[in-house]
Design a protein that fits this description.
alpha/beta, five-stranded parallel sheet, 5 strands
């Protein structure tokens, strides 16, 4: 078991350019200190510099990092594409082992909107449309209906508000932070 009954674990999944990192940053900005961001891109691409493949080392590093932060009393947001077939077992173990509430969200953005959002990112000139198509998996949901699906029609602020409310992070007293 890990964390406490008070710690929150939030998992944000979705395709590239679905808004996961922006929502995660919005949650941290709104909550303040005491909320750890465990980003797949940071751990996989920056720390380990590895490709996303089944059984890759980043899967264990994401798990270990989330567990450590929860045990240290942080609320944790795990965010990334986190394909269900590659990361699902690890996410299920995190959920089962966490003493506090765990909330899963899937940001569901159609491919055309993915392209439009991707065009605004600094990496747009490096990652071409063909690569995005290769990565894109429509509604790659985890089994068991555990994810709340947030559609492309939800603005960034609305998504952050919803998750803050759903998870109870919005209602924690400043002394709890």
């Amino acid at each position: 078991m890990m964390g406490t009954e008070e710690t929150r674990l939030v998992v944000l999944r979705g395709n590239s350019a679905s808004g996961k990192s922006s929502v995660a940053e919005g949650l941290r900005e709104r909550f303040g200190r005491g909320l750890a961001l465990v980003g797949q891109d940071n751990l996989r691409r920056t720390v380990l510099r590895e490709h996303d493949r089944p059984g890759a080392a980043n899967i264990g590093l994401i798990d270990l990092t989330a567990r450590y932060a929860l045990d240290a009393g942080f609320h944790v947001v795990v965010e990334g594409i986190l394909y269900a077939d590659r990361y699902g077992d690890m996410l299920a173990r995190l959920r089962a082992d966490h003493r506090g509430p765990t909330h899963h969200y899937y940001l569901d953005v159609p491919f055309d909107e993915t392209l439009a959002r991707h065009a605004t990112k600094p990496i747009a000139e490096v990652v071409e449309e063909a690569r995005l198509r290769e990565w894109y998996r429509p509604r790659d949901l985890l089994p068991g209906g555990i994810e709340t699906v947030i559609g492309a029609d939800s603005a960034l602020g609305q998504s952050v508000d919803r998750i803050m409310t759903d998870t109870g992070l919005a209602h924690l007293h400043p002394a709890d932070r």
